[in-house]
Amino acid sequence: MTQKQIVIIGSGPAGYTAAVYAARAGLSPVVIAGSVTAGGELMNTTEVENFPGFPAGVMGPDLMENMRQQAEKFGAEIVYDDVTDLRLEPGAHGITTALGAEYTAQAVILATGSAYRELGLPREKELSGHGVSWCATCDGFFFRDQHIAVVGGGDSALEEATFLTRFASKVTLIHRRQELRASQALQDRAAADPKLEYLLDSEIAEIHGEDALTGVTVRNTVTGETSELPITGLFVAIGSDPRTSLFADSLTLREDGYLAVEGRTSKTGVEGVFAAGDVIDPTYRQAITAAGSGCVAALDAEHYLADLAARTGVRAESSQTADVA
After folding, report:
1. Which residues form the FAD/NAD(P)-binding domain (predicted)?
2. Catalytic: 139?
3. I want to staple 90 with a disulfide (CB 3.0 to 4.6 A). Which of 45, 123, 177, 271 is the partner?
4. Which is catalytic among the residues 62, 82, 85, 139?
5. Is residue 295 annotated as a catalytic residue, yes or no?
């Protein structure tokens, strides 16, 4: 059993930023980054142009590698493993991993992120970053003067569609029903946009392209008829799901399924448990906001540990390992 002052579950901008701050504070954090998902969603992106400090842009995987190296430079330990069991007990939170490692931690930061919902079609993942995207703010600039499509009918879909008309020559919104779910204000704004057109009662049946997206097959959900839509960009805006399965039964979730925290802090409803990044943020979902959230969580955890030590006189030895029977 390894005893730590702080364990960070999840990586990406939130987890790695929390690790940088916690390590610089001398807390020697362990980051359980995931065996497959280390680095988070940015590992699946290409060029990131809106992260401050990179005027020429930076590839998503390179940005995550830089963050990882920076965390390790200050003393964070990165573990490529998955948490299988989390026991939230104030003062001695228990963590078990898939490879059998066991930790107890005075503080835990949850940076498990969220996952964009996918259409589940062949070629969708293969063309991610090559015409298929889940983030208009991240990738819209690359589709200047092109015909692109947005899939979805809620607020996010209409917001992305109207944002993308700043760059595209035409944006086609594809929604499987006749009625949109977005607010009337957003629908009115979209209806006034001359670059935006609708394909209602429609869904994407196939995605085409080898090295880059060349078009999609659209199927009418009422008649079953299909047609071809030649586009070079496809933005999927059908929602996202926070990764909360580890703690859904032990922490308070909001009505939308995201983890609840106290106001602008990272504090959850359990003492010594903090959260950061997309697992608490269904609205902004940007690398920079996740990084800022990770900073908040690390500072909150640092203050908590200092207060805990003052109250109890107990300070965990960050590298202490004890045998358990």
Report:
1. 5-294
2. yes
3. 271
4. 139
5. no
